[in-house]
Amino acid sequence: MSTLLYALGRWSYRHSWRVLIAWLLLLGIAGGSAAVFMKGTDNSFSIPGTEAQAGLEQLSRSFPQASGTSAQLVIVADDGGRVDQAPYSTAIEDAIGQLENLDGVLAVTDPFDEMVTGLVSEDDDAAIVRLQFDGQATDVSAETKDQLRDISAELEDSLPAGAQVAIGGDLFSQSVPAVSLIEAVGVLVALFVLIITFRSIAVAWFPLISAIIGVGLAISLILVSTAFASISSTTPLLAIMLGLAVGIDYALFIVARHQDQVRDGVDPEESVARATGTAGSAVVFAGVTVLIALIGLSFAGIPFLTTMGIAASVAVAIAVLVAVSLTPALLGFSKGRVVGWKRRPRRAARRSDAAPDATEGTPARVRRGFADRWVTGVTRHPVITTVAVVAGLGALALPATTLTLALPNAGMQPTSSEARQAYDLTSEYFGPGFNGPLILTGTIVTSTDPLGLMQDLADEVESIPGVEEVALATPNETADTGIVQLIPTTAPDDPATADLVRELRSHHDEWLEQYGVDLKVTGFTAVAIDISDRLGEALVPFAIFVVGLSLILLMVVFRSIWVPIKAAVGYLLSVAAAFGVIALVFEQGVGADLLHVAKTGPIISFMPIILMGVLFGLAMDYEVFLVSRMREDYVHKVRALGGLHDREIAVGAVRSGFTASARVVTAAAVIMFSVFAAFIPEGDTAIKPIALGLAVGIAIDAFVVRMTLVPAVMALLGDKAWWMPRWLDRILPHFDIEGEAVERELALTDWPEPNSTAAVVAEGVRVSAGPTTLVEDAAVRVEPGGALIVTSEDPRSARALLLALAGRAPLEGAARVGGHLLPGREAWVRAHVGVALLDGSTQPLRDLRRALSGRPRIVVVEGLDALTPGSALEGASVALRDAAANAPGLVVLVSTTRPDAARALLVDAGWTEIGEVDVTVPEAAPSEPEPAGSTADTDDPESLLFPRRDAAPTDASATEVHA
User: Fold this and answer.
1) How much is the pLDDT for 387?
2) Best CA proximity match to 483, nearest among 523, 513, 449
3) Distance between CA atoms of residues 938 and 907, nearest Å
4) Helix or strand or coil: residue 822?
5) Cβ neighbourhood burial of 500 (10 Å; 0-12, 13-18, 19+)
6) 492 to each of 118, 435, 525, how far by Cα in Å?
7) What pairing do the DSSP bridges indicate for beta strands 438-443 and 520-522?
8) 244 touches 187 (CB < 8 A)
9) Residue 932 binned pLDDT confidence (cut-offs 50, 70, 90)
């Protein structure tokens, strides 16, 4: 990965205009496609497999006039007026006539109809006109909604002064979020932070431009997808929020690394390549963690949430691609002008414990920044710091124990919204339950008295605590399905309403046995409750998934047990504290007015799972960038001291690593906090708690957990922080998070010698298959046009060496094949080295010809003995001769147990420079069980922290063959 990114960074730097134009073209094509094909977002919520959803589907088939979306007009008379008297009654009657003519309206309920009860308040000072539409809210056209608003406005104008008419209901319960100028403040804050961080106005624009292009492309693709998928209106806003935050931060990490390197004197082109290969590798890892967490939202099994996670992951994936390609291209425009203005020298502070100055005999003046002073204080008192942080975050998380969940409704909208006004008026004059009626439905085809049956069921339902009244109990026109519509005593998002739904469902078996009706509790309120319950049930499995994933990923990165455990515990503390702050604001009302919270109460149902997923990825970003630098410094110090392990060395590495990375991590956290916080004041009711949770979570995780708790715990652990059992190290894959392959390639640029002509060269090569070593300390060298014959007592050893040199098997040591270093460049080697595995092949000559096709520069022939004397050998000689004629300088590596026959074949095919090497089979070392708690693994820091890191070339005693 790192070597690929290294090459990509260099190419992008050299072709800046091409890369920029390519991304702009993609943005233009996606934007144009969105303008042509997008069909708008869909705010309907459904959850397959639940009782409420099954009930709605049953109603849509057998009772369509009760299954579609609904709306209502709430008419409130002025002081002293009565809605059942003129001019109110006549005006309402005229309005009903107009409403019945609207497109898509199935029925309009007249509150004064003799067959209707409950739609006029007890004091006759308010009335409700209900409309039933055909289909869901998304099926109602914008034109019909506008006509409905016009009729409502005309009705209010015709009534006496002081009267109120508000329109609401399920049709208007969801608001469409939009981006306002307030959100732009977050971008401006990010720009200011970037200017301070880079000390350059020009350079500060690079991460911002990258992020904006990436977000524009992601949103365009999301809007295009509305043509064939159902996407909620919250989805694009979440993608904008995440795309901006991670897009700026990912580009920031690469630009900051590049700027530091240029300031140290590295050539700008080389610096961009290195920064993309090193910091870019960390960016890819960080992006992958966010992607996995977002895709993990599908754990809940809720389609709209799965779609939201996939759409947000698209924004993150594009942010990663833009960061590793467009950012180097933008840096190519600036060339070496990225240093920025010089920092004003700070007055040095005198330290009494500093070393005496050699010339004056007085303590030397040592400059210490805030990061240095902070980490020194934290690591000097690690126990106190750890206890204080854990206790403080634990206390902040306590309010989260009362957190309740619900889907958004009109009651959560701002008071300026007409739907919110209708919601409040309905609650005031009819009771809160009128805003969320429940429906019981079932098949009654076996009943001989449908009307009597429905009345009996209504009496049963009305006797249940929590039911205000039964508004309707009737069979359909064909008398095969019945519905009971009831009004709860509590609001739709009240936990008591959810308890009522569960209570109604608990009577299912009783009513089935007594009345023979399989009743389902449904309605939009029941659907919302089922979604909230499903999301609540998914939190624990999702948390296990996220925490388990973090443990595995960080074990892969840091080759440690304690570092991942510490990171996972810190993540849980951050999430719990963020939940606590959300509960304080949105449920208890602390600071609610300051943040423009329209109404305190339950939190939007999908907030916890989205917050957990997103915060996991972002927390891992900070963990990687901070701890990887500590790990790097520790390894370097241990090597410099000849492998000495000591707690003081580990603590010193914690301090130096923290100081080196604190500036960039601080800037990244401030930027993310600013972007998320900008969506809080004027944000949509659905996005506001998510934005607050992310902003608080980022601030707590970055500054309290990662930059305070982490160095304290690392200081407590000392050198034990980097311990891992050997057996676990063997089974875990490796991810080059810090671009070790790039550093290795730079160190071996002139190996085996400057301007080397060797086609294949290797030193100190070791090849293993699990715990078994097949090749030990092998060395070869083949010039262009040469050949090499590999023999061994164990054919597996010869095969292993050839496959490793062909990029098909992992090796340790140093090897350069076709000018590309192994390991690290396996992808290129595999693509350019032909391989013929003849041992065991049914048609070895055909396989040889296939390997020689395509004019490869190097060919590996394993098991040459499979070619029988006669026509097969002659055919092989011809094939090799023809391949050499088509590709001058062709190199052939063969394995055989008959070297004389192989040499004769190669000579016959035209090769004159032929070398031979015998691979010595390593002696198997006796294996002993590792004692529990053994620290034998830690004897060698290189094997501990880089257990499979490629060894540098050595003057090995193995035979080196020049062909």
Assistant:
1) 93
2) 523
3) 51
4) strand
5) buried
6) 18, 7, 6
7) antiparallel
8) yes
9) very low
SS3 content of the chain, % helix, strand, coil (to 5): 55, 10, 30
Three-class secondary structure of residue 43 per DSSP: coil
Name the residue among 589, 794, 576 with its Cα closest to residue 700.
576
Which residues, in sequence order, are CB contacts of 910 under 8 Å at separation 6+?
Answer: 880, 881, 884
Cα–Cα distance for residue pair 267/9, rounded to 1 Å: 14
Interatomic CA distance for residues 178 and 237, integer angstroms: 7
Quickly name the fold that domain 438-522 has: Alpha-Beta Plaits (3.30.70)
**DSSP for 144-187?**
HHHHHHHHHHHHHHHSPTT-EEEEESGGGSS------HHHHHHH
* pLDDT for the residue 142: 79
Instruction: Report whether 126 contacts 120 (CB < 8 A).
Output: yes
Quick check: do 2-42+181-334 and 540-729 share a fold? yes
Confidence band of 183 (pLDDT split at 50, 70, 90): low
> CA 674, CA 667: separation in Å to the nearest integer?
11
| 657 phi and psi angles, rounded to 5 deg | -65, -40
271's CB contacts (< 8 A; 6+ apart) are 258, 261, 262
DSSP 720-747: GGG---HHHHHHS----TT-HHHHHHHH
Residue 742 near residue 3, CB atoms below 8 Å: yes
Q: Are 492 and 409 in contact (CB under 8 A)?
A: yes
Distance of alpha carbon 418 from alpha carbon 187, whole angstroms: 31
41 by DSSP, 3-state: which? Answer: coil
- CATH architecture classification, 540-729: Up-down Bundle (1.20)
Please state the φ and ψ torsions of residue 319, each to the nearest 5 degrees. Answer: -60, -40
Residue 933 has what pLDDT? 36
Distance, in Å, from the CA atom of 295 to the CA atom of 298, rounded to the nearest integer, reads 6
At position 53, the amino acid (one-letter code) is Q
C-beta separation of 479 from 63 below 8 A: no
Are 761 and 910 in contact by the 8 Å Cβ rule? The answer is: no
Helix ranges restricted to H, 63-141? 88-100
407, 524 contact by CB (below 8 A):
no
Taking only the tens place, the pLDDT of each residue in 13-51 is 899 999 999 999 999 998 888 888 877 666 666 667 777
Q: Which residue type does 138 have? A: T
Nearest Cα to Cα of residue 614 among 394, 317, 312, 189: 312
Per residue in 711-725, pLDDT (tens digit) is 999 889 888 888 888
Per-residue pLDDT at 923? 63
Superfamily per CATH, domain 65-172:
Multidrug efflux transporter AcrB pore domain like (3.30.70.1320)
DSSP 344: P
Say if CB 280 and CB 5 are below 8 A apart. yes
Per the CB < 8 A criterion, the answer to whether 529 and 519 are in contact is no
Q: From the options 3.60.20.10, 3.40.50.2300, 3.40.1570.10, 3.40.50.300, give the CATH code of 747-925+934-945.
A: 3.40.50.300
From CA 778, how far away is CA 801, in angstroms rounded?
Answer: 8
Identify the CA nearest to 305 among candidates 219, 225, 228, 234: 234
How far is the C-alpha of 244 from the C-alpha of 213, rounded, in Å?
10
Q: Where are the domains of the chain?
A: 2-42+181-334, 65-172, 438-522, 540-729, 747-925+934-945
Q: The tokens of 69 are what?
A: 């979306």
Q: Is the peptide bond before 160 cis (omega within 30 degrees of 0)?
A: no
Q: Could you tell me the two tokens for 529?
A: 């409750």
Distance CA 910, CA 624 (A): 54
- Tell me the whole-structure pTM to 2 decimals: 0.72
pLDDT in tens, 55-65: 777 777 777 66
Give yes or no for a contact between 552 and 535, defined as CB atoms under 8 angstroms apart: no
For residue 906, give the amino acid letter.
L
Architecture of domain 2-42+181-334: Up-down Bundle (1.20)
How far apart, in whole angstroms, are the C-alpha atoms of residue 797 and residue 804? 11
